Amino acid sequence: TGDELAYQQIAENVAAGRGFFQTNNPFFPGQVLYAWQAPLYPLALALIYFFTGPNLLVAKLFGILLSTATVYVTFDFARRVFADLRVAWAAALLVAIYPGLATTAHLLLSETLYTFLLVLAFDLIARATVPFSPFAQEGQREVTMAAAGIVWGLGTLTRGINLYLAFVPALWLLFVFKRDARRAISAAILFLAVSLITILPWTARNYFVFHQLVLTETKGGVNLWLGNSPYTPDEFIRTVWKSNVREPMLAALPPGELARNDVGYVLARNFIVSEPLTFVERMPVKFADFWGFERSLIDVAEETKRHSDGGWNSPTKVIADAVSAFAYIFLMLAAIGGFVFAPNDKWKLLLGFFISGFITVHAVIFGDGRFHLPLISLLALYAGWFVVNLARLRWEPKRAMLTLALVLVFGAIWWHEFAAALQILRGA
Q1: Are the C-beta atoms of residues 52 and 58 closer than 8 Å to each other?
Q2: How many CB atoms are closer than 10 A to CB 233?
Q3: pLDDT in tens, 153-204
């Protein structure tokens, strides 16, 4: 369903030699779109299909292999950050059994590939910067940092958000090597340059198609407009794609793919400038949508109400939703505690700024519980640390108060979604 159909069609087109395009976008039916989706995931599927044909089972196995590889990369990253095998095993275990990642792995969605590339990029950065690592020695450090840049660029070709956040690792490298200005500047420039070079072939392809600069994809303007328009709903903005107000928003855009993207940016900017208070008031709502349950309780409640005689209210389905929600709450609470109490502040700086930037982008556009999935493996590092060190934790008052404040914020978000779903089930 949804993006899976788009990725499948693009992959089949490329594998058959017809080119990179789709015509099955549900919001612009029949229109030929050449760069609406970021390219790497459908191109990876196309490479598989070139040898196997459009075999869905093989495509699903590809996702499962990527998700399994993410478990190991999480282990390696945690081992280098905390220098503690117990924490590394705990983080890897949390990622391995996490329901949201496990049930997404076999879907034809880009999240699994992006999550793998994101954690791998951070792991390579750790390999190049952790003292006494063979990868951090002279000569090897530059190769490892270049590899991190390549992987970051590939992540950008999977999810364009990496493009906006490439400055975070670059600035962090300046901080880490601050005692050696030459090394700091060369590491940051190398990372950024290689990341940019990695996406240039696709940018050149887009220029050939559109005769205009399009770095990665053409959906940014439309998404920004959907989250920042006079028609955008004020509560649960994540529902904008299915709400009744979507039609007038899309009707305000021209038919052409590139023109639609450009006009979307203009309309959204004009609205933000003219309604700055509304823009600011919506950001907490988008933040809450971003951290909502991955199996949205509201969507589940609506489907249960519509299909009361089907499997949506079966004991198995209810248990699956409950386990998924419990696992998410457990990991988030442990990650909050770990992030506040764990040592090694330089890694908190890197991951904290990246996660904050990731959230900010979605708080400007719009959020959804599915969108935070790539962050779960990063949060699992600190959740693993918290689980391992809980018994001997020193509950410093300031850190304990900060932890409690964050827990209350997230608790309010989850309760609000639960209460709204309950209202739907009651027929309110």
Answers
A1: yes
A2: 16
A3: 999 999 999 999 999 999 999 998 888 888 889 999 999 999 999 999 999 9
Mean pLDDT of 413-425: 92
- pLDDT grade for 297, boundaries at 50, 70 and 90: confident
132: left (phi > 0), else alpha (psi -120 to 50), else beta?
left
Structure tokens at 216: 């990665």
**Are 255 and 238 within 8 A, CB to CB?**
no
Say if CB 36 and CB 257 are below 8 A apart: yes
Residue 165 pairs in a beta bridge with: none
Residue 354 near residue 397 (C-beta atoms within 8 A): no
Strand partners, 269: none
User: Taking a C-beta distance cutoff of 8 angstroms, is the pair 232, 282 a contact?
Assistant: yes
Strand-pair partners of 22: 33
Give the C-alpha separation, 249 to 410, whole Å.
31
| Residue 362 CB partners (closer than 8 Å, separation 6+) | 286, 287, 290, 371
Contact residues for 35 (Cβ-Cβ < 8 A; gap 6+): 20, 206, 209, 210, 214, 216, 217, 218, 257
- Return the exposure string of 127-138: e unless at least 16 CB atoms fall within 10 Å of the residue's CB, then b: bbbeeeeebbee
